[in-house]
Amino acid sequence: DENVLQFLKKTFSSDSSVYLFRNARDFLQSLEKIHFDMTILDINMPEISGFDVLKILQDKRYIDPVIIYSMISDKNSIFKAISLGARNYLVKPQSPETIIQTVNKVLNSEF
Fold first, then answer.
1. Which residues 6+ apart lie within 8 Å of 63 measured at CB?
2. Dihedral pair phi/psi, residue 70, rounded to 5°
3. Where do the H-state alpha helices sit in the chain?
4. Distance (Å, rounded) from C-alpha 82 to C-alpha 19?
5. What is this structure's pTM?
6. If 81 and its partner were Cys, which of 12, 72, 86, 99 is the partner (CB 3.0–4.6 Å)?
7. How far apart are the C-alpha atoms of 46 and 22, rounded to whole Å?
8. Nearest alpha carbon to residue 65 among 47, 90, 46, 48
9. What is the pLDDT of residue 12?
């Protein structure tokens, strides 16, 4: 959703390059051209779900961390996302501080 995209852009754009994608297909195509230090991904997306994106990233042996940021809060979805390679799962909404802390935690941890 556009509000979430703008919220994330505002949260990170002061210290980082931020790329926003309105659908999973555009994100997946960008992987051939752009290296991302971190990906924040929703489960509910047009065309391709976040679970499907995680599976594609897993199949491509994508090693950069992914955080899920989604309204979906059931334990099965959280477990599924983590088992498909997400390093953390945040349920919307969260404060900018919480998102930044989570990103820093994931970027500074070793896997």
1. none
2. -145, 155
3. 2-12, 24-30, 50-59, 75-83, 96-108
4. 23
5. 0.89
6. 86
7. 8
8. 90
9. 77
